[in-house]
Amino acid sequence: MATVENGTEQFDLGWMRRTGPWNTRAPRGKHGLTLADVAVGAYGEAPDESDNQTGRPRGAVARPGSYRIGGYAVRSKSEIWLDNASFLYEEALQRQWSSATDVPWHTIEPLPDDVEQAECQLATFLTEVEFVAGDVPARWVSLTTPDFLEPRQVLLAQVMDEARHMDVFRKRALANGGGLMQATGATSGFVGGIDLSRDFTEMSSRLHVSGEGAVLTLFRMGELMAQNEAEKVIYRLCAQDEARHVAFGIMHLRYMASAAPERREEIHCYLDEAEAGIIGAANPVGQLTPTSESMAIILGGGKANFDDGMNKVIAIRRRQLGEYKKRVISAGFGERFENGRSGVDRMIDHAA
Ligand SMILES: [Fe+2]
Ligand SMILES: [Fe+2]
User: Whole-model pTM above 0.90?
Assistant: First the structure.
């Protein structure tokens, strides 16, 4: 603050002495200046336990009078950390796309009424699901200490991705003579249950690994479901984003397994719950839902080929289980498929 003494301005430049580690020159790599590049020295040190409740940026000098603004519940590194968060964040930034201009909307042409209704029903369902996928990580960002900035940044990017997914399926529903259909209630079933998680890893195993994993498998079948180039592009771009969200969950579980092995059994319990959700969704007897029926009409090419379409839906459900299993093995929890704990293999055999 400037003061005036004897007509001369005196400046208090004390702030110039209060710096974090100085002489820091983050090296620029071949991908520009990434978040990983600036994780140098003390700036790169995420503590195992964080006492930062003030929103102080990691590496900045603490200010004694700061209010405890955060009330952060996630302050143990193992609760949220993963090794490749910086990479996932940079990739998210580089691969942002516009649902307004990157989708060739002009390739959508009028469809038979039953197929358009099915497209709109599926788009309604996906809008509901994407709503949860954005809402829940946003809540956890606000609960996480800023010392764990890399996973926070990835989750913030995910929220942006999900905002785009929410709007692109809304746009699809309104683009071709149809509109939104009745809400399926996905926000109150298994998907809605994601938001009842009390622990970040519990949430991540439900959201990133089982929920978004199943959605990723579905989007990757977009070539089969798309009626036009616009829908193909929508599924392809959404799958690209979803793959990052799923990778976050797998890499986090992997970190958790090594940093906090005492929590393995607890994590298996989360996976039991998450699995119950996708196994329930894969049960052929339970396929007469608006979502599965609309997919059967889309995959069959109309109501007249419903049975053929439903066989394809069941094949997709089986594939969702198979890919889920691979992800859990990759996350380091594959023993559940060896010791009979998981019901996934039985369901895959049953559906075959
Ligand atoms: Fe999404
Ligand atoms: Fe997602």
Answer: yes
